[in-house]
C-alpha cells in the first residue's frame, strides 16, 4: 500500500484539495508533525486516526536524524499493510518536514510506496492575501529571514520565517525594497494580518512572511493601458451626463458586443 505526503494548504480547512481530503479520509493512520497541521487534519478525519510522532525541538542534527529514523520505523510497517498519510502545512515539497521523512524512508525502507498530494503553498497564497500580481515573465525568489536577517539581491522575494520583522525591515529598506508582511494568511488559528508596518508584527510569530520588491522596479504590462483608458472614459461619461439631452436614443440604446471566438481569448492560451 502507500505512504501519502499530503499538503494541507496554508491552514484553513477548506483549502485542503479535494484529492488531499479523499486521501485523508481513506487513510488508516494520519501522522502530523505539529499542532497546526494536526488541527487542520482533524477537520477531515476523526481523532482516533491520528498517529503519534515525537519530534524534539532541537537543531542537533544527530538527535534530528534519530527522531526521523524512529518516525520512519513507526510509519513504514503501517504503509506496507495499508494507506497512511503524513500531513504538512502548505506543500510537502516546499521547505517542508516531509523531505526529511522521504529521505529517511528511501534510505531505510525503500520498498514503501510513496505518493505526494500537492497543497496550496504560502508561496502562492501570499499573492492573493496581499492583492499582489506576479505577472508572467517576472522573477520571484524564495529566501529565509529568520532572526532579523535581511536577504537582498533579487528584484522580488518572498522571505519565510520572518521572526524579527523590525530588524529584517531595516535591512530590506536600506537595500531599496518596498516590503509587505503577511502573518497567518488563510489560517483559522490566530489573527490574519497584512501590513507594511513592521511594528504591527513586532511579536515573534513563525507563521510570518515578507514580500519584498525593489522600489524602482518598472513593469510594462500591455493591459496596464486599460486603467488610463477606463479613467478617461469615466471622465468623458460624467462630462456627457452634464450635457445629455432628454431625447431617447433611436435604437433604444442597446450596446452590441462581438463574441470572442472560443479558444482564442489570449487568456489561458498564453497569447500564442
Ligand atoms: C518551513 S516553511 C513551510 C512552507 C510550507 N511547506 C508551504 O508550502 O507553504 C514555513 C514558513 O512559511 C511561511 N508560512 C507558511 N504558512 C504561512 C501562512 N499561512 N501565513 C504566513 N506565512 C506562512 C512562514 O514564513 C513560515 O515561517
TrEMBL record:
Residues 225-259 are annotated as: Disordered. Pathway: Cofactor biosynthesis; adenosylcobalamin biosynthesis. It comes from the Archaea. The keyword Methyltransferase applies. Keywords: Cobalamin biosynthesis, Methyltransferase, Transferase. The keyword Transferase applies. InterPro entries: 4pyrrol_Mease (IPR000878), 4pyrrol_Methylase_sf (IPR035996), 4pyrrole_Mease_sub1 (IPR014777), CobI/CbiL (IPR012382), Uropor_MeTrfase_CS (IPR003043). PROSITE patterns: SUMT_1 (PS00839). GO terms for biological process: cobalamin biosynthetic process; methylation. Residues 2-138 form the Tetrapyrrole methylase domain. GO terms for molecular function: precorrin-2 C20-methyltransferase activity. NCBIfam families: PRK05576.1-6. This is Precorrin-2 C(20)-methyltransferase. It comes from Natronorubrum daqingense.
Amino acid at each position: 500500500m502507500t505512504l501519502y505526503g499530503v499538503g494541507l494548504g496554508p491552514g484553513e480547512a477548506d483549502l485542503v484539495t479535494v484529492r488531499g481530503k479523499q486521501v485523508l479520509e481513506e487513510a488508516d493512520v494520519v501522522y502530523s508533525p505539529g499542532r497546526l497541521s494536526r488541527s487542520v487534519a482533524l477537520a477531515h478525519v476523526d481523532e482516533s486516526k491520528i498517529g503519534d510522532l515525537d519530534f524534539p525541538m532541537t537543531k542537533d542534527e544527530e538527535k534530528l536524524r534519530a527522531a526521523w529514523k524512529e518516525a520512519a520505523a513507526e510509519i513504514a510497517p503501517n504503509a506496507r499493510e495499508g494507506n497512511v498519510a503524513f500531513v504538512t502545512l502548505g506543500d510537502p515539497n516546499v521547505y517542508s518536514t516531509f523531505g526529511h521523512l522521504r529521505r529517511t524512508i528511501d534510505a531505510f525502507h525503500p520498498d514503501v510506496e510513496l505518493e505526494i498530494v500537492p497543497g496550496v503553498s504560502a508561496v502562492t497564497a501570499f499573492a492573493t492575501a496581499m492583492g499582489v500580481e506576479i505577472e508572467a515573465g517576472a522573477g520571484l525568489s524564495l529566501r529565509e529571514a529568520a532572526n532579523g536577517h535581511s536577504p537582498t539581491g533579487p528584484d522580488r522575494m518572498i522571505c519565510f520565517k520572518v521572526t524579527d520583522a523590525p530588524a529584517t525591515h531595516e535591512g530590506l529598506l536600506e537595500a531599496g525594497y518596498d516590503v509587505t508582511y503577511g502573518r497567518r494568511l488563510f489560517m483559522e488559528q490566530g489573527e490574519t494580518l497584512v501590513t507594511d508596518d513592521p511594528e504591527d508584527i513586532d511579536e515573534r510569530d513563525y507563521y510570518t512572511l515578507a514580500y519584498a520588491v525593489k522600489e524602482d522596479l518598472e513593469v510594462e504590462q500591455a493591459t496596464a493601458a486599460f486603467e488610463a483608458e477606463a479613467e478617461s472614459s469615466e471622465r468623458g461619461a460624467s462630462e456627457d451626463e452634464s450635457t445629455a439631452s432628454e431625447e431617447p436614443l433611436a435604437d433604444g440604446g442597446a450596446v452590441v458586443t462581438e463574441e470572442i471566438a472560443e479558444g482564442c481569448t489570449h487568456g489561458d492560451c498564453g497569447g500564442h
